[in-house]
Design a protein that fits this description.
The protein is an alpha+beta fold and about 210 residues long. The chain is built from five helices and eight strands; from the N terminus they run H-E-E-E-E-H-E-E-E-E-H-H-H. Strands 1, 2, 3, 4, 5, 6, 7 and 8 form an eight-stranded antiparallel sheet that branches.
Length: about 210
Amino acid sequence: MSSVKKIMAALLTIGLMVGASPAEADEYDEPSLEEEDFIEGVVEEVPETIYKWVQSTARANYYFNYRRMGYRIDEDGYLDLDVLMVPTLFIYDEVQKEDVIAKRRWRNQSLEGYETLTGRADYLEFRLTDGTVRVTERVDLDEQWGVLDTDRSGEPIDLLSMPTGSVEYKFYRAIIYYAQLHNRELIERSRGKLSPAADMDEEQLPIMQLELP
């Protein structure tokens, strides 16, 4: 099986791939970030038709899945325009892999399969009115993007309390910026019903009210 086919199969396995007939990607002018050179990971091809690269640090490449990001749907089938759900992806360099393994060994956690560690997937939940983000699920991935371990202990973080120069803040800000530019597309892709309360001016929607410096 080719590397691209393996990647696509793995994407389907961990639920990061979009459903039928998604819209094509649009370019967006996110303010430039101070970044290191792009890191060549074990998985060399991250599909640009699914993921947007945001930045690289000395230890990882940062992506978000713009084809699966969208608003939460409540139990009645209505879109909750206050809650934005975003799958993300991080591809590690060798030093970061070794660091993750060393920390798991120190915590007496299982190392089974971690010789093939490639990165992780974080599933983000933005509470827009509260201005918070929470990692609802963090998944360690092997070189075929299979699941090694899962952590669901994430707590909400106040976005405005984060250091604006931190790597995480820049990543979250880029995601919000993209969502603001593509809000109508996100609403259509979320496949839920719009409540009468959602019939308001674009600028009044929670995503537009969240301002991150």
